[in-house]
Design a protein that fits this description.
- The structure holds two protein chains of two kinds.
- Chain A is α/β, with parallel strands linked by helices.
- Chain A contains 16 helices and twelve strands.
- In chain A, the strands form two sheets. Chain A has an eight-stranded mixed β-sheet, with helices on both faces. Chain A has a four-stranded antiparallel β-sheet with strand order 2-1-4-5, covered by helices on one side.
- In chain A, α11 links the parallel β7 and β8.
- The N terminus of chain A is likely disordered.
- In chain B, 43% of the residues are buried.
- Chain B is α+β, with helices and mostly antiparallel strands.
- The radius of gyration of chain B is 25 Å and the shape is elongated.
- In chain B, β15 and β16 form a beta hairpin.
- At the A-B interface, α10, α11, α12, α13 and α14 of A face α6, α7, α8 and α10 of B.
Chain lengths: 404, 411
Amino acid sequence: MMLDTSNQKKFVAKVDDLKVYFNSKRGTVHAVDGISFDVYKGETLGLVGETGCGKSVTGRSFLQLLPIPPGVLVGGSIIYNQQNNSSQRFETGSKPGFPNSRNFEFKKVDLLTLTGEEIRKIRGDSIAMIFQDPGKSLNPTLTIGAQLSEVFLQHRTEEILEMAGLGSEASGAIRRFASQRNRIFDKWLVNLSGNRSTKSRVEKAVADLVAKALSDTQVPNPVKLMDRYPHELSGGMKQRVMIAQALACNPDILIADEPTTALDVTVEARILDLIQELQQRRQTSVVYISHDLSLVRRICDRVAVMYAGRIVEIGTNNEIFKNPRHPYTIGLMKALPSADTARGELLAIPGNVPELINPPQMCRFFSRCAFATDKCKNQDPELEKVTNSHSVACFADVAEISGK
Amino acid sequence: MNSKKDNVGQPILSISEVTKHYPIREGALQRVVGHVRAVDGVSFDIFPGKTVGLVGESGCGKSTLGKVVSGLTDPTSGSVSYNFNNQLVSISNLEKNKFKNFRRNCQMVFQDSFASLNPRHLVCDIVGRPLKVYKEVSGYDLVEKVVSLLNQVGLGREHLYRYPHQFSGGQRQRISIARALALNPEIIILDEPTSALDVSVQAQILNLLNEIQKARNLAYLFVTHDLSVVRHMADSLVVMYLGKIAEAGETQAIFAKPYHPYTKALMDAKPSFDEGQNSKAKGLEGVVPDPARPPQGCRFHTRCSLATDKCGWEVDDVVRWLEDTPGMFESLTAVERKSEFSAVLSFSDESSAANLTQEMRSEKLPTSMRKALNQVKINEKNVQIEFEPVEEILLREKDGRHTACIIEPKN
């Protein structure tokens, strides 16, 4: 699990000075204000922070899922480093039947500048996402099987055609049917008697793929599940379907945006096990967005703590939780109710998260910080290295704070 | 309210054998075809100045119980008794005046502060409303009283004329608490008051609640699913599963050594922060059974890792098991139940029936379930199954703790 990242600094994604603002009536909200971090291969990176600190915005900008406008991409880049060894998948990139297909090379691309067509090929294929509320993110009008097959139809057309025994000689209509790019008369064309048997072969192939994806997430009786609608399933089961969908195409990066917040603890533990197991088997990098510190401590290799649109501390699990350097990180951990804190003596962080509308040039934690000095008021601290893997954005004497 | 000091030994609120069933209606005539047993025979007491924590998974009936206790819905049977001047009186048949008296003494704080504060009302109106309704104060005094209430929860005069949407989640929860405190109640029912809040704010609210409790000798019924919060807040604990109490007792004792496997499972599923990295979390298999048809014996046996043959295996377990086995459920055509423990399963073809009988005797079935089987008889397409019938498993007391489990806790 613990991956030695020092000798193989091979990042799959590099977020560099990402800035996402939102225009509102009262001014510009600096939701994410210049954050940088790397995601290494096979690791789990935890992104922790409180509501409104920009962790979900960060996660969503990987896949251009932000509402723009009102959102504005002010600057920065997310470089995605396509892992060559794991993929023959992009060979299909320039096959006929793909409208607009260009021979773009997925060596290193900036996810933020891709066109809609290009990002579509990455979404759900090499970068996938699991959302917080499985009840809201599954389409209630489609069966589980229909929803899951979309992923395959979008990204695995060639494989499907091969499984159906058609290979390259498939007719245009069938090919378009198998990649969900139907044209006006295609529906009628594939249902012609000559095409019907090939059509059903394609459908069978898709169903097989879906069943396999579902059985990977340990759902009992996956074939039966495919005919069900989301409302017939329990929360844990729905989340399993979401995971099956996200991991269907063996993504390089999985962005998990609080995947277990809507679930019961007993189910949560099993879902986490499942994600971990699948991750290890496939060497997927996971960006785990959460506000639950105890959970992040349990599953993450590295942790980035966010506050008010900034990363205030980033480091390995041990560094963050055993040797926290930022007053905010320390405060968060002290605020957790534990077995030995006496009642009424939780150390809460006073005050509230500051508004992010046109924030002044100062430390954003200033108003709540017990160690604030004049310097914090006039200058904005940058992330500075404490050790090779541990960085903190704070002026205060870190040793003094962590002693307390 | 002046009798607060006298009745320390007596519970302020006593809940005895409360059940709440919701009818399921079907068809054009909306006939009642069954009941969802949300709460099914729950009893415990709440003492002044103490906190009772009520924990369980979603759908176990904890919020419903909170509603019954506060008088928002009537229980189907059983009673909630409130202490009027050292006399426990059931609240369901109270005359209007007395019920009003109960209502003002038993307040509620809800989980979702967005939904529980009227977005069109000013804070001043929201917090002042109970005072107006009970004609406590009026006019200028009302505003002053509201200000003093807001001060108690860490807000101030400047917040009087604002709308709920202008506040953050933590502040809105403070407003809810101020409203609950307005009439100087004796008990507050807190329905997941911090589950929508961030940790740093949660700590603020928990501290605030503790402060108020000390100052006013309040009793809390703290409904939550978060064990670390309940461990911090509650004096005694009630663990619910599927409408029933699985375990009840002193918080410290239960956390030191849970007797019921379900309590243990809950704790294992969420190791506390101190236990650190690489502590393994263990979840539970399967789903909670349908509360409309809860198991006859132990309600937890379907997911219990320690289940024995005496735990109440029944026909539904076989059907559920069939559902998860590919190919078998499709050929099942009918289930004719004689009782919970004996039934005839009809299949569309003989081979499936033979298959089932074979599998029921094989290793595929959980061992404890196989032991509980009295007989499996095959008759062409029909399979007759009979389990050892068991009685309902009741709460038993041991060293001041109540557990609903037939397995003796090991020492």
